[in-house]
Amino acid sequence: MSIFKYRVQAIFISILFTLISCSKEKTSSPTLSSSEISNNQHPSLIITKAGVEKIRANLGSIPIFDETLEKVKAEIDAEIALGIEVPIPKDYSGGYTHSRHKRNWQTLQKAGVLYQILDDEKYAKYVKDMLMEYEEMYKTLPVHPKTRSYARGKLFWQCLNDSNWLVYVSQAYDCIYNYLSKEERNKLETNLFRPFADYISVENPQFYNRVHNHSTWGNAAVGMIGLVMNDSVLIDRALFGIKGAELDKTAKDNDGGFINKDGKAGFLANIEEPFSPDGYYNEGPYYQRYAMYPFLVFAEGLNNVKPEYKIFDYKEGVLLKSINALLNLTDADGDFFPLNDGQKGMSYYTSALVTAVDISYKYGNKDPGLLSIAKEQNRVLLDDSGLAVALGIKNGETKPFNKKSINLADGPKGTQGGVSILRNEDIELVFKYAAQGSSHGHYDKLSYSLYEKGEEVLQDYGLARFVNIEQKGGGNYLKENKTWAKQTIAHNTVTQNETSHFEGKYEIGSKHHSILHYFSSENENVHVVSAKEDNAYPGTEMLRTMAIIKDEDFEKPYLLDIMKITSSKANQYDFPFYFFGQVLAANFEYNTPKTLKALGSKNGYQHLYLEGSAKPKNNNTKFSWLNKGKFYSLTSVANTNDEILFTRIGANDPDFNLRREAALMLRRKNTKNTTFVSIIEAHGNYSPVTESAVNSNSSIKELKVVIDTIDYTAVTITNEDGKTKLFITSNINASKDAEHILKINDTNYQWTGTYYFK
Amino acid sequence: MSIFKYRVQAIFISILFTLISCSKEKTSSPTLSSSEISNNQHPSLIITKAGVEKIRANLGSIPIFDETLEKVKAEIDAEIALGIEVPIPKDYSGGYTHSRHKRNWQTLQKAGVLYQILDDEKYAKYVKDMLMEYEEMYKTLPVHPKTRSYARGKLFWQCLNDSNWLVYVSQAYDCIYNYLSKEERNKLETNLFRPFADYISVENPQFYNRVHNHSTWGNAAVGMIGLVMNDSVLIDRALFGIKGAELDKTAKDNDGGFINKDGKAGFLANIEEPFSPDGYYNEGPYYQRYAMYPFLVFAEGLNNVKPEYKIFDYKEGVLLKSINALLNLTDADGDFFPLNDGQKGMSYYTSALVTAVDISYKYGNKDPGLLSIAKEQNRVLLDDSGLAVALGIKNGETKPFNKKSINLADGPKGTQGGVSILRNEDIELVFKYAAQGSSHGHYDKLSYSLYEKGEEVLQDYGLARFVNIEQKGGGNYLKENKTWAKQTIAHNTVTQNETSHFEGKYEIGSKHHSILHYFSSENENVHVVSAKEDNAYPGTEMLRTMAIIKDEDFEKPYLLDIMKITSSKANQYDFPFYFFGQVLAANFEYNTPKTLKALGSKNGYQHLYLEGSAKPKNNNTKFSWLNKGKFYSLTSVANTNDEILFTRIGANDPDFNLRREAALMLRRKNTKNTTFVSIIEAHGNYSPVTESAVNSNSSIKELKVVIDTIDYTAVTITNEDGKTKLFITSNINASKDAEHILKINDTNYQWTGTYYFK
Could you tell me which residue ranges the Alginate lyase domain spans (chains A, B) (predicted)? Predict the structure, then answer.
């Protein structure tokens, strides 16, 4: 991506200026006159005339492309054999008509490229015939009968899905454009495409004129069809939003997000606002993945048809940077970290990421690491970018995509907190200190999840939804998403007085963000991130410092977690660890109740059963468990007044919408200032085949806080062999160059920078 | 294995006679005089002098052998570099001294074969040095300090592990026999091997003189060292048990099994008793796997040193048949079905099965299907049989090991019930109607578990134990094994009046077995097994007929389950379905309690929480769930008085020893005769990557009992397209040739055999 970074800034500024000036002109008429638009060659969006020729010339010698082509051909031939079905819209997601129209958009897009690549008219005819059926139906189609959406579509229950349809179908239309007669094109454009584009935009500004992933789809849909139709009005509307649209700034969508609080709209605003300069998308990777497709295909189309816009350079090349960020937001298996509302299991194997990787490769700096991901994906786009990837692989240019520790700032200018990922060997920590994340944000400041080799060690619950599974609330968000998944107690962070951060209110949460204290990954063995949050609970300051430490005296890198809380009044702090698997051992005696009751009545606590309780017996609370053949231990500095609770999700869940998963929770009552210090070790393994348990015990003998002042927190870690290490973090001065001297037990420790470890 | 079946019977009988006559002679002195024993060539047990030459000649050209050799060499070289450790015994399983001595036996055995194959003295020296350290320690070693075992060992807490040690170490001794001087051999035999063999046999007859997997290890250990030492007393004791040992016939072992109720003992009795003629091992596959190694290595040694015994022909070749049975008792991933006490995850990748597959290949009929399993195992024994497998693979003889529907009779004569496995496409049903299964048996007559492609759909809980994980009860059986895992309610079968089969008493259960009614797998699309149980609840007869049906109108084969109960008095019947995953939908309204309480106070019920309850609303109870991306539906013929309970395991589990897993339970109260009829469908799929839900609904519109008499039960299955199929099972006449005529709703159905389906 560095090519973009170092482009001559003057060019960039001039383009930006063009875009801004266009934006200003567009109040009364299309800003781009027809003469400004490139000659109307087809196809031109994602597959170009030149690309088609190159693809045809290489066919049979580019294995990954050839295999993808073969599979897609088989799939589409089977669809064609089944015949065309264009049912009257009726269902929510997961229902028949929804699924059918969704499949149709996919089939149309694929049939279009097959026509171009294979030059077989049967595909063009199929696309034409189906489009004509849509034309016939659409011209008299009322709004979709299902009423739940804030922006009902026509083919689907929400404009969002109508937009999905148009983004794909524009590509199909582009592919058969020259196959159709002028009259046929006229018919389709007049009765289907233009009214379709108008419906999802000017007729639904509350959907279209926002900064939101929904709107991105809408913008791209309008822009894509505009590019094919050579319609500058539509292209303009796509880039800059609806001219003069006035929206209620206090209105909210179905997810509780503001419709359009600050009046920004259009594709460029949708790039500008949600992406940070690092390419982090404010809603999190799950929604970025969803939004990525329209961002990229429209950008690609725009790049091909209007290269003078240099869209891939926009905001210092943020679109391509965002793909790198997104790939870094995956675990070892390629699954996205389920920050905010994210369905677990979504991964870079999803087709949107095939698009992302291929486009990033072709239009970026030909990063050979992307080829290794393309290989894992085992398919490419059947277009110009897919060809580029296939040729790269064929020419042996593949290199591993190395994911390292990375800090991704959040916010349009990168100043609204962020997300850090610390990696060492198979251990990955995902630490969230970001902004609210729009309507899909959770109330979990300074929360984290921990992975080993792609397996969750301490989980983020993700969303409470079964996407597209009709039996579960129509496949939409379940009420438990609000009552459980978004609540603070559902996350590995501190809940104060059994109340969520920002009172669990979007209006408050969306005003604030945490602040990075420091991030350090220079030392190969010690990666540290530290961030603070002062607004989640007014009057309470939280500073969390998390380090992944590779110490030669330990089998695997461990997580050191220091959560320093300073408050103006006494509170109760709950500090959960959402582990998986089987309890192995504890160094405290616990009681298990005869009957299970809910731990509380609100803010997520109503969904937790109390399965056991204890008091610490030692200065350290030690707890071990076994999950999927691996051992884990938590060692936590204990306060004799602490309570230790065993909880399980599932109370007050009358539809069995929640997963019955466990946590160990530390509870510290009636406390103003305090510091939670813990270490999570992954260690050893167990195989049910060999039945041998290797290194099944924690290696930590003692964890101790030796200093805890406003300026410094210092802890010692003593292992079972008696070797002691000292970690000191600077709580105030985050300068990399600061010189520190600290006396602990008559020894002076002197160092430069944010932390000390030895 | 057919080679054994068709051997001239006379030869077999004469051998058997020899063995029997030996047995009779052995009351006062060794029956096999030294002169009868083959010349004392070494090595001769599992690797022979001729085998070594052949291996050396082929090295470098037999990939799977070469790779195994390389790995083993690397492993042993690393061990040798670490030095020898022979600690004073101290710990239970999972503890340091236990693990160390276990590793030593493995290292010794491997170092022995490396010496033979590589002809490098360093391995022989290592074996010798370690044996000398054992000799030094053993000669004054007291009984192991841990007292929990009914038969304490010396190196380990139980004689069983001492026997494991000797089985392996005998092989090591055999390999370096000729490397040692006569004095060295004399020292080892006098101070280590002979007292060791005596300790685990004559000094612990309660361990040695039984029919039990423990004793098999003991017998093999004594026999193996006897073969190396050319000691006919020991060989004799191995084959026939301890002469004149008198044991308390009412004594029990730690697992609650009788020590020696009927006085049988010795290796041959251990083949005779637990194996059915089909090769089913009475304790189930998990323990068969464990016992397999000593059975086979001692048999192999005996075959090599005393080929005249024709041990592999004994009991019509049952040892090799049992391997075929064992491989058939695995799911699609090679995991053993966890019948009785079985730890999940144990599979044919375990080293004992490498032994089994290799020996079965060499000494059986060179089944090319075994080569495909050897390939999956990706290693072979470094001996004559491993060479045979490696050569078979090298020569391209591999064929798939096709697991089909199979019925395995239980009992020494195959007359004590059995286990059936029905397979069609990816669906596997394991139906258990066996005898008690010795001390490791569960009280679960006519129970089943269901698999799809190696994933559990409806589970058998398995055991309540974490084998070798010291933190969990020393790695031994947990108390919940008795209070939960063995109880009837923990299984997918009927519990009457909240009491387990046979009152959960081993004394009663071990007297009885279920009876096969019929098994039919001739029809490619319909596989059926039917069995009855009259003794689990005196006065109550249960006949369960289970069919896996591949019907063109359904996506996948489904399970039809007909449980017919006839009782002399009114009872409560509980009928659970232990499913996994997330509840999707139900056609009945259920209530979920605010607090969770135990469902009962004993017989396993004390471990179940009641999570919900309902009454059927229709003639059919329908319940769907989602697990690991697949949909499942239960359709059950409902009685309006039925109760439907949602349960979860975990109540009264103060150490978190149990997995928190769910069941749906049908409860029918105050009923004498009744029939539970259900269908379990696997259907569709869901991918979190594509987020598309395919075929997520049951295809069954109605399931109906149309006839239910003493003679016949008939059910109709109507699918969503309105197509109806009729299944009739004959409840009395199990003849394959019987002609039946049955009038149902004025239509006459006529068929030959046990069931009708159309």
Answer: 111-333
